[in-house]
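Minutes, project check-in

Agenda point 3 was the complex the collaborators sent over. CS summarized: two entities, 386 residues total, and the question is how they sit relative to each other. Sequences were read into the notes so everyone works from the same version.
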Amino acid sequence: MEKAINNRAWFFVLPVLVFVLFSSLVPLMTVINYSVQDTMGQNNFFFNGIAWFQNLLDPTTDIGGRFAAALVRNLLFSFVVLLIELPLGVGAALCIPRHGWKVGATLVLIALPLLIPYNVVGTIWQIFARADIGLLGYVLTHLGIAYNDTQDPTSAWATILVMDVWHWTGMVALLAYAGLKSIPDAFYQAARIDGAGRWSVFRNIELPKLQKVLVIAVLLRFMGSFMIYTEPSIVTGGGPGESTSFLSLDLVKIALGQVDLGNGAAMSLVYNLITLTICWVFFTVMTQLDRRKDV
Amino acid sequence: MAWMAWNWYTAAFFAVIVLLLAVMTMLAVWRPETPRVGILRFPTTRGDRLFVSLIGTAFIYIFWIRFTGGTTMWPAAVLSVIYWGAMFRFA
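CS then shared the predicted structure for the full assembly.
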């Protein structure tokens, strides 16, 4: 049957387009404009060529060194986050009951950290880690462990990592659980007939069936950790020293703290480009996996 | 509009982007195509190749500035043109 073509739907998309124009496109264009100009204030700009980018990409300058260090730091952070949260999330999902009243109770408990606003999560962990009144800091200090998240970089990293795991593993677990629930019982029955063990079932049935949701989980968690700002900004403020200054923390310091528009603009553009590229690679891999499976 | 700090260089850049999108839209309407699989090993349309070219050009420039200091930029431009050609021909 021939489908009627009706382009009226475009009008319904219009409000969103206008919104995106003012919330994303205009600011992005402004940032691009700032990135090639310098100003002496009073909205008087003059062309500065690629000088900001030269400054940013040269690791021997102040901004360049900070950017390179923050990039490495952030990639490492995202990598460790994925390394911990994915296996942990899948493991948790395997333990969630499949039937009865326990399902709802477990899911709500697991989802609780996801419902807490980012800055509240930061505040909770900031207090939790304090040696004088915080449970974690107090207990660790009294156990004789040298823990101080405001002075020792290792403690600061551990705190932020554990906080992120606490905050987001639930999401991975929920995604993985949804994936597990969608596996038909027939697969398990067939495995039982074949005498497959628990590991074999996981390796040959559950993991392949989870592939799609896991790619989504990787994408979401990578982006979340690569753009992380609020929690570390409250817990450590990027310190001690620069040891937990991730890209967005550094960017805010440069663009808003020092009102260094040119450097901030150049940095946010390169940052944006890296994020966009990684997003696109993930997206392409994801859709290709789908396509190959459907064929 | 003063706060947006307009200048001719970025205005020309945005104009070219808008022009490219317009041309792509018109091509899609009047010369529809089917995706093809090239050296990137996944099916690409003209739009995909344009996107890959734009992103790649940005990275060519970034790496050029990073490793040569960016005092002369024309070799990066030449590299980008070659890269665009390769993407549109083989991707």
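Noted in discussion: Residues 77 and 123 of chain A are 20 Å apart (CA to CA).
Follow-up: revisit at the next meeting once the mutant set is ready.
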